[in-house]
C-alpha cells in the first residue's frame, strides 16, 4: 500500500472565503484531498471555492446524490470542476436512501443499482464525447437523452474523470468493484463490518470483474472523537449514531450489529424530537461501535489495521457535539493523522 493519504470534509454552508482558507491550509499540511457533502444543496460550490486557493489538493464530491439531477448536468458540473481545478476533481456519487431522493428532492429512486448504472454510463459518455460531436442519445429505464441538436462543448481537461461510489452493504460494494474507479466507505462502517463484510465482498467482486485491488481507490470515512474524557466523547458520539440509525433503510445494517431494536426506536423518536434529542436512546456500546472514541494514539492504533483495505481515510468530528468540544476534536484529529505508522 502506498503512503497513507488523508482527506477532510468541507461544509458548503460556510462562506466561500472560509472554505478557500481551510482548503489552502489542508494543502499546506500535506493532506491528499477535500470532500464536499450534499445534504441540502449540491456540493459543487464548496469545491469551486477550494479550487481557487489550491493547486495540488484533490477535490471530490462526497457524495453527490446520484438521482436528484440529470446525469447530463452532473457530467457538466464534473467537467467544470475538473477544469477549474486543473484535473483534480473526483466525482463521488451514490444513491443515498429512498426517503432523501423521493421525499426531499421529489426525484425517482427506483431500483438503485440499475439506476446508478445508468447515471454512471451517461456521465462517462458525456465527459468523453461532449466535445467531439459524437453524443447521440441514451435510452434507459430511468433516463432518456436526445443530443441530436447538441453543439460540442469546450474540450475537457480529462476525457475520463474518476468516479468513486459510496457504499454501505454488499450490493453497492460489488457494484463499485464492477463499475467504478473507487469506493467511498460509509461513515457508519464499524471495524467488525469492515473486516467481515467489506474486505471479503470487495475481494470477491474484484476477482469476478477481472480487476486487481490496485485498479480502484478505497477511501474510508470515520467519525472520531479523540479525547481523554471518554464519557464526554461517548455522549457526543450518540447524536451522530441517532442521525443515521433513524433511517429505516439502514435498519438491516444495525440489526446485523445487534442494535435493531434501538434503530426502530430511533425511527420513531428522531422525526418527532430531532436527532440530537433522540441521542438519549443510543446506548454507550452502540455509540462506541460506530464512532471511534478515545485517546488519539488509541484511535490511530485502532485504525492501523484498516490501512490493509484503505488507500485513504477521511476522519471527522461527530455531529451535534457542543462547539467547544467539536473544535477540540478537530484539533486532535491532526494528532491521529500524523501519528507515525
Automatic annotation (TrEMBL):
InterPro entries, alphabetized: F420-G6PD/mer, Luciferase-like_dom, Luciferase-like_sf
Molecular functions (GO terms): oxidoreductase activity, acting on paired donors, with incorporation or reduction of molecular oxygen
UniProt cross-references to Pfam families, sorted A to Z: Bac_luciferase
Domain Luciferase-like as annotated: residue spans: 10-304
Protein known as: Unannotated protein
Amino acid at each position: 500500500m502506498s503512503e497513507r493519504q488523508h482527506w477532510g470534509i468541507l461544509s458548503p454552508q460556510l462562506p466561500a472565503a472560509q472554505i478557500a482558507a481551510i482548503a489552502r491550509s489542508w494543502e499546506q499540511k500535506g493532506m491528499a484531498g477535500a470532500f464536499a457533502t450534499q445534504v441540502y444543496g449540491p456540493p459543487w460550490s464548496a469545491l469551486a471555492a477550494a479550487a481557487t486557493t489550491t493547486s495540488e489538493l484533490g477535490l471530490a464530491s462526497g457524495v453527490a446524490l446520484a438521482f436528484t439531477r440529470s446525469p447530463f448536468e452532473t457530467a457538466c458540473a464534473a467537467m467544470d470542476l475538473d477544469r477549474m481545478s486543473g484535473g483534480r476533481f473526483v466525482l463521488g456519487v451514490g444513491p443515498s436512501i429512498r426517503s432523501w431522493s423521493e421525499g426531499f428532492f421529489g426525484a425517482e429512486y427506483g431500483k438503485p443499482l440499475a439506476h446508478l448504472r445508468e447515471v454512471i454510463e451517461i456521465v462517462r459518455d458525456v465527459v468523453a464525447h461532449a466535445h467531439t460531436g459524437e453524443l447521440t442519445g441514451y435510452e434507459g429505464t430511468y433516463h432518456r437523452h436526445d443530443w441530436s441538436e447538441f453543439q460540442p462543448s469546450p474540450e475537457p481537461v480529462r476525457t475520463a474523470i474518476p468516479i468513486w461510489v459510496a457504499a454501505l452493504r454488499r450490493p453497492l460494494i460489488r457494484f463499485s468493484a464492477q463499475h467504478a474507479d473507487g469506493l467511498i466507505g460509509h461513515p457508519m462502517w464499524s471495524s467488525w463490518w469492515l473486516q467481515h463484510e467489506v474486505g471479503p465482498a470487495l475481494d470477491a467482486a474484484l476477482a469476478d470483474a477481472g480487476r486487481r485491488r490496485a485498479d480502484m481507490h478505497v477511501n474510508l470515512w470515520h467519525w472520531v472523537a479523540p479525547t481523554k474524557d471518554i464519557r464526554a466523547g461517548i455522549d457526543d458520539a450518540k447524536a451522530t449514531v441517532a442521525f443515521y440509525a433513524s433511517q429505516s433503510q439502514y435498519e438491516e445494517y444495525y440489526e446485523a450489529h445487534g442494535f435493531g431494536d434501538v434503530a426502530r426506536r430511533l425511527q420513531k423518536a428522531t422525526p418527532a424530537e430531532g436527532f440530537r434529542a433522540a441521542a438519549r436512546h443510543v446506548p454507550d456500546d452502540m455509540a462506541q461501535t460506530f464512532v471511534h472514541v478515545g485517546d488519539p494514539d488509541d484511535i490511530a492504533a485502532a485504525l492501523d489495521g484498516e490501512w490493509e483495505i484503505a488507500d485513504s481515510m477521511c476522519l471527522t468530528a461527530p455531529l451535534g457535539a457542543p462547539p467547544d468540544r467539536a473544535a477540540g476534536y478537530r484539533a486532535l484529529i491532526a494528532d491521529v493523522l500524523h501519528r507515525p505508522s
